Amino acid sequence: MRLRQFTLVLALVLVSTFTLTAQNPAVHEKLYISLETTDTVAVVDLATFKQIKTLKVGSHPHGQASPKSQDKLYVASEVGGVVTAIDTIRDEVIKTFAVGFGTEPQNGAITPDGRFLYQPSYAGYWQVFDTQKEEIVEYIHTLGIGHNTVMSPDGRFAYLLPIAGGQGHWARPSLGLPRTQPKEVTVVDARTHKVVATIPTGAGPRPGTISPDGRFVYMNVDDLMGFLVIDTAARKVVSKATYTLTPDEQAVRSRSHGIAVANDGKEVWSNDVVHNLTFVFDVTVSPPKQIARLAVGRQPYWIVPSKDSKTVYVACPSSDELIAFDVATKKEKGRIQFAAGSHPTRMLVVAAPRTAPATTPR
Amino acid sequence: MLVGFSRRALGHQRGSRVEVGAWAQVAHVPPPYARLSRPVRIPLDAVMTSWHPVTFTAEAMAPATATAASRRVLISGVLFRRSPDDLSALCLTCPHEQCQVDLITDSIRLAAMTGGAATHPLFECGCHSSVFDAGQDGARVSGETPRGLYRFRITGVSDGVVEINEVEEVALREV
After folding, report:
1. Contacts with A341 from chain B: Cβ below 8 Å
2. From CA A40, how far away is CA A17, in angstroms rounded?
3. Over the stretch B82-134, which tens digit does the pLDDT of each residue have?
4. What digits encode the pLDDT tens for the residues A95-111?
5. Cβ pair A299:B106 closer than 8 A
6. Which of B106, B122, B128, B149 is best to mutate for the A interface (most A CBs within 10 A)?
């Protein structure tokens, strides 16, 4: 009897160890990752951690967004100014929207109901794209270079994170719109598409993410090896997390780029690009406390959690790798090597329904 | 000038976001150089083969600015032979956003990057795919970078040792 119990426990441990992500049978959890130089998006099955499909999209695919229904994915393409819609149930391209997304569409976000895509452009504004009418219904000018976007979990607010940037960014065409270097986050009411606040950040915003309850935005910024914590109710920066680096590491300029919330909102994982590291912070305390420092591939650039937030995926474009980490143990548990020079960067985990919702227009 | 293919054509092949010509660096004006804290010395034997990269780390002091004190900087560099009688020493930090670039020597990758036009290796940044000409002292070819790679100056070759003791001054602020 005892032996049988022991065998059962052992089997459960083994299953939990080797299954990369706990899977809800009603959905198919997949990771979509932009392979920048091949103009494709790779589809990775997270149960097996294998690439199962490659989809041709626009040139130089960048950021991705998916609504709460998870049956669609929108991929922006930097070159050519298009956004590609993908059916995540069949993993097929549905349509390519070329509706004037402007100079280099970047990393957008979509309202949970799937209606409005907040699509940033390098020209200095966000476009609000109505996915039903298939047209841009609003332009939001931020003075910065439109780059990253965070949607609150309830869909009430969109947080626009424009780049302050350096020479390489400002040499790009502005389409005549004034641009400054606004070191702030712009808050937009996602029902009216109107700016309701700005949050000073003291440095140029970089990638950001939001806690599951929507209370905190965590954001990388220029010249900070770490991230800021923004209280979304108070609309202000309330604390700062700083990586612990050796003197030699401090002598090599790096950047923080890519940030994710894991472990049910208790941890934030954030990349250190040039030192090839990912740091983990306990965000249940203020300021956040560093609890792990993980060696990853070359120049980690993006990072996302699984739907249950028990696995974190780190994209390393310079070594063309995608690495899976177990959140509980902080150990690597899988690695995908993409073709040399394909440069996997931005990505999103999607829990696609197994069958199309009855109300989903096709 | 790139050998074997035009910069404009390459920029187009790579989906460059702007006309390559708009990014051209000002030619024939030597940039100011700064001394390293100590010279980097590399055996000449290590770079006898063309395009064989030898990486190194150089140390220098970045001067104080209005907002920051003087600080110690470590700069990743690469020394390689680009022709039988010509060495090149470049900083491996991309001027766009400080990612590290790679010297691409694989002919299949070079062909994919240039539509088959490349006749010699190129540097590529993994973060945003900027491309630099290894045969032209790291000059910008395409991508988001505002300029070519920062350059080291080879200050002497004697007794079978290559000595590198200067770097473009601007690199001390940017890397």
Report:
1. 104, 109, 112-113, 124
2. 31
3. 998 899 999 999 999 999 999 999 999 999 888 888 889 999 999 999 999 99
4. 999 998 887 899 999 99
5. no
6. B128
